[in-house]
Design brief:
3-stranded mixed β-sheet; two-stranded antiparallel ribbon; alpha+beta; 5 strands; 13% strand; 46% helix
């Protein structure tokens, strides 16, 4: 199972990620272990503040700055990715579950999009500009089917 792929209890996934960090030379501190466990258990996007709140519920002495430093280290090691999903703060999730994002500017709904959706776009940009697109880092902003239908006064599509 790839590191970060959660299953019942998430314990093996946490140990897989921690082993990957150890192999890369990272120390496994209490704060890092709690943060990794929180990321695995949540299994969804979370801001640094949300992650800190959950970690601090178990270890109140772990500061937000420690969470940020750990997130930076986890991202450097390829364990965590961050994404900008609209106008709010960056969100973090395990890299093993990386995907694209579609965010509705009307209602704020976020939809995870498979990588295949962005392949043609990435190939076009690479061919025309020699630029490699990281479709996991940003969100495509638009309107969801519900908001589009409501604006038109039509029944929802899909």
């Amino acid at each position: 199972m790839p590191p970060g792929e959660a299953h019942a209890g998430g314990g093996d996934a946490v140990e897989d990620v921690l082993q990957l960090l150890r192999t890369g030379g990272s120390r496994i501190t209490t704060s890092r272990r709690l943060l990794v466990r929180t990321l695995v258990e949540r299994g969804e996007h979370a801001t640094a503040e949300e992650l800190a709140s959950q970690v601090q519920s178990e270890a109140p002495d772990i500061h937000l700055s420690t969470i940020y430093r750990n997130l930076e280290e986890l991202e450097r090691r390829g364990v965590v990715s961050h994404a900008h999903l609209g106008h709010g703060p960056a969100t973090y999730h395990l890299s093993a579950t990386a995907h694209g994002h579609l965010v509705c500017e009307g209602c704020g709904a976020m939809h995870e999009a498979p990588d295949e959706l962005f392949e043609d776009f990435a190939a076009l940009v690479a061919g025309r500009y020699g630029f490699v697109v990281d479709s996991h880092h940003f969100a495509v902003i638009g309107r969801c089917a519900r908001c589009t239908a409501a604006e038109r006064g039509a029944p929802e599509v899909g």
